[in-house]
Please model this.
Amino acid sequence: MGNLHDGHLALIRKAKKYADFVVVSIFVNPLQFSPNEDFSQYPRTLNADCKLLRNLDVDIVFAPDEKILFPVQQEILVLLPSIANKFEGKFRPGFFCGVATIVLKLFNIIQPDIAIFGKKDYQQLHIIRLMVQQLNFPIKILDVETIRAADGLALSSRNQYLDKAQRQEASYLHQTLKNIINDIIAGQNNFSLLENKATDKLSERGWKVDYVSVLNQETLSPVHTRDKKIVVLAAARIGKTRLIDNIEIHR
Amino acid sequence: MGNLHDGHLALIRKAKKYADFVVVSIFVNPLQFSPNEDFSQYPRTLNADCKLLRNLDVDIVFAPDEKILFPVQQEILVLLPSIANKFEGKFRPGFFCGVATIVLKLFNIIQPDIAIFGKKDYQQLHIIRLMVQQLNFPIKILDVETIRAADGLALSSRNQYLDKAQRQEASYLHQTLKNIINDIIAGQNNFSLLENKATDKLSERGWKVDYVSVLNQETLSPVHTRDKKIVVLAAARIGKTRLIDNIEIHR
Model:
């Protein structure tokens, strides 16, 4: 969606490494915003973005007007399985349908061999992989680790909505996930206890927590005793700004 | 779906004319059958089909096992606009979702420049064109006129379900559409009257009519006074066999 930061640039550096022709799409996708969300205020900085992309020697920036992608009202959409209504999907109804539909359209327009997504939007990456498999797209999906500020806050265009005090507090979301990981490494198996403890602690500090969930990495379903690959997902609001983050652990 | 007749062969001849490499897909698609429909008894004649296709000098026959297209339960589907719940979609719930999803999968596997569909499945052709437009598939859709038996019956694999008497009566569906067209050419503007008259006549003769509808060719919505391009769609059952047909008219 543009307003590029080092997280996006990491995607592009990976693309340059794996592909001999790199297309960057920049499009603030109205389909994935609810009416009460920040579509109109979402930061749009195309000129600055293009300067950064020129430095990275990108071949094409595809930044279409809305009328190009939606010449008529989009009435054909991607119908997703129930995982799309959990976690992010529960708190942002229609979000993943909007994401999957625009990604499918961009796939068909750009026809990439490889497409690259960040792990910060962990559930999104999961759903895009599902879509590529189940709809037989001839596209290899690569992921990129989340890029963080020095204090651990995951980079996000929405971080600029934060005032100074909020920005300082924001890194506590990452700290929360690290605490859970440490408890799991220390042998804690009661994941709902960890989720609830984290939620309570965030709430005490003034966050409005949407979810903190300890999940199987590959299915995003609850962790079974023998599961080795775990991910902790979280979403919470600080003031009016909604932040998400996640950490993986291989126990 | 295979069990090839001259209608299918007309599609392939058109493909050979427009493309230098022709792939024929043959797959009886479980997604588009309701539980009470004829999925298990649908005629499968792959060896005979391949002989016909060899004569036509087709490059590839893609006839995958179900496990190839559905290694896991298909949980990502194409969500279609309300037109998909009318006419065929009203009497075959989920039919167009199943069709659109398999066609999308085949598009991604085969990656054709051109795809060819018959006009006999008129609403299907309409929905596939919509899908290609709205999901930005880089594919040109070509259509082929319905091929008919000498008495006017549209060729269909399901015609072989008919016994001798039913086969004789079956051509009356096409006759019904021709009668409507003649009335329109003669100046009749009361389309519901024509629809009802046709339905009554078919019912008197023992047909169970699903619908007879006079529509705008391009939108499949009711005809406005100034519309020039009209199509009449019909679906009706004779015994247990469900037949569909349509005629276009440019008035």
Notes: Chain A has a mean pLDDT of 97. The first strand of chain A starts at residue 23 and ends at 25. The radius of gyration of chain A is 18 Å.
